């Protein structure tokens, strides 16, 4: 009986809190689209993805970068791509371009992008298999 009461006392407020957070975050949510790879193995990395937000955000209102090592470790993602000099730029149409300087030597890439804006923060893991041609 005590376990049942404790479960009801803890579970109901927790569920309400989670439900409230879901609705609150959807009002200011940001959506990151799929990655489009524009480079091949041996080329400098080039790719893009779209960002959608309920309000148009400028490049000054968004921070888009490769996630720090702590996030890679928390997510269990290999940190090899952290050492690539990836640059992120946001176009007016919401398209984020990712470019690298050094040629990519490995066909399999795994990296994490962090997006920070006034209402929140999100991370997205991308996995890429580069075409050798």
Automatic annotation (TrEMBL):
Q: Write down the Pfam families for this protein, in alphabetical order.
A: FimV_N
Concerning InterPro entries, the annotation shows: FimV_N
Domain FimV N-terminal residue range list: 30-132
What is the name listed in the Swiss-Prot or TrEMBL entry for this protein?
FimV N-terminal domain-containing protein
Question: Organism source for this protein?
Answer: Oceanicoccus sagamiensis
The organism's taxonomy opens as:
Bacteria, Pseudomonadati, Pseudomonadota, Gammaproteobacteria, Cellvibrionales
């Amino acid at each position: 009986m005590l376990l049942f009461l404790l479960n009801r006392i803890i579970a109901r407020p927790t569920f309400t809190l989670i439900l409230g957070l879901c609705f609150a975050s959807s009002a200011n949510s940001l959506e990151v689209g799929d990655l489009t790879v524009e480079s091949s193995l041996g080329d400098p990395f080039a790719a893009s993805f779209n960002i959608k937000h309920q309000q148009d955000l400028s490049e000054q209102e968004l921070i888009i970068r490769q996630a720090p090592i702590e996030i890679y470790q928390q997510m269990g993602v290999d940190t090899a791509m952290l050492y690539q000099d990836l640059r992120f730029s946001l176009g007016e149409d919401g398209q984020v371009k990712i470019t690298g300087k050094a040629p990519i030597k490995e066909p399999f890439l795994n990296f994490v992008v962090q997006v920070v804006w006034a209402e929140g923060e999100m991370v997205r893991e991308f996995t890429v298999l580069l075409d050798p041609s």
